[in-house]
């Protein structure tokens, strides 16, 4: 799966989980850029991404993410 | 069952037309998601949960401070969640020699929390029991080592049950058995716990919410009272009309075992007060034959309150059963192996619950266990007698047809009623009837046993319970009135409810005569009543006007000066 494919799917997960059609997600997007993306929502996003990509993130990975690009790094790393 | 995200979507919906129940949620781990799951699932069950959530780990502070937000909020239900992980944390910090007293110390603390809440609030307390954690320090030997964590946790769960059996406002929500159902791996997600302090996984939350709401529904009077059984391939294997009594599957061999176990389950339900009815497409005599003659049948005709076997459609038959039993369709469960019949009944009677029984009968029981259909918040001796009561009712209905007019029928019944204030013997039944009565219930206030005890000891209240006996049998305690002294002249009818089993016997007149006599003896001049409408009590909309009360919105007033005794054929039991 390419980075852009992963990004595309992450975007859908964000829209679905945060229940907001108008969210834009780019590799550079940070939690602070999206109103709904607070620490509680983060838990749901992680859960949804784990289910969708059939991966398990390490707690340390989750804590280190600074933006979406690092999430993509984790996913592609876990997929391989 | 909806998943967590679907439940969360419900939060945006309009709750304004739903029944509001105030919940307080207090936990020693983070409870935000639990609160969202409860709120969201409440919507689908017709509740607007008004939820106050304590800050993280504030149980003791909130409970022991009389001026705390918890008490300001005045919840109907207090939900307490102390997690197994925190319990393990406590155990870990204890000196070795204190490990054996963990369960006892926790139990004492929980009892204190409960009693403090119970003194301050008129609320039910729901406590989550402990999901098992085996820290594997002792291996299997933990089971014979009192100081092991597993030993202490299980002991605590057991002692909680003992405590709950003595405290009438304390209810345990059995998340431990829920964990057994879905497996620990699906309950606890270590990475989530590490980053959020939440111990229950996203997928487990809807199940916990569901189990909690089952309990809350029962507390507020919504529970199942009756199970209606199909026969062929539901109650026994095979088709009695085609296969004959020798060839149906029941007993200890092969597939018969599944049906035998199913029947034992139904029999246990019957013994605990669930009414069992039969609805089958069969010739009646053929359908009854196994109940009468088959040596391996567990269910017998005396277990069945209403037996409908004919070739009419099942929806009509179920309506007949409903008329005889006089309970709501929403308190009935229909079990049938045939998807066509299930859909037909569902479409025609939307309120009845019709589980999608699995295709393979060997899976019936596990499936039914998981649905948790028969939640309750009380259990009394009366429950065990219920089947007989309804059978007698069927006989009475037959006798009724023989009399040309109502009066002759009523006289012929030779009715008498035992009138008593609340006491320790009738308290459980009074509380139970307050939870079960929906139709003939003027203000639909639900009482726990503790509430009833308080009323019986108060000088501001006068309590009346009524039984009704006739020549066919004893209906037991079937009517309750609670009068509140409003002032020296006026008695307010705080509660008047009656079992629908005894409608149209003149009981209302008898009851009114009784309370009027009492009021006069004690120097009151007026009785004041109120009707609070619910979805179900339309039947008593005109109760007070019919009895001669004058409307004085929103109340109804009866002046005692000119009261004339109302006619009835019930005498007071000496």
TrEMBL record, chain A:
Q: Where is the Carrier domain?
A: 1-79
Provide an example Pfam family for this protein. PP-binding
Q: Please name the InterPro entries in this protein's record.
A: ACP-like_sf, PP-bd_ACP
Name of the molecule in the record: Acyl carrier protein
From TrEMBL, chain B:
Q: Name one GO molecular function term.
A: hydrolase activity, acting on ester bonds
Q: What InterPro entries is this protein classified in?
A: BF1531-like_N (IPR049369), FkbH_domain (IPR010037), HAD-like_sf (IPR036412), HAD_sf (IPR023214), HAD_SF_ppase_IIIC (IPR010033), SGNH_hydro_sf (IPR036514)
Q: Which residues form the BF1531-like N-terminal domain?
A: 22-217
One Pfam family cited in the UniProt record for this chain: FkbH_N
Q: What is the designated name of this protein?
A: HAD-IIIC family phosphatase
Taxonomic lineage from the root:
Bacteria, Pseudomonadati, Bacteroidota, Flavobacteriia, Flavobacteriales
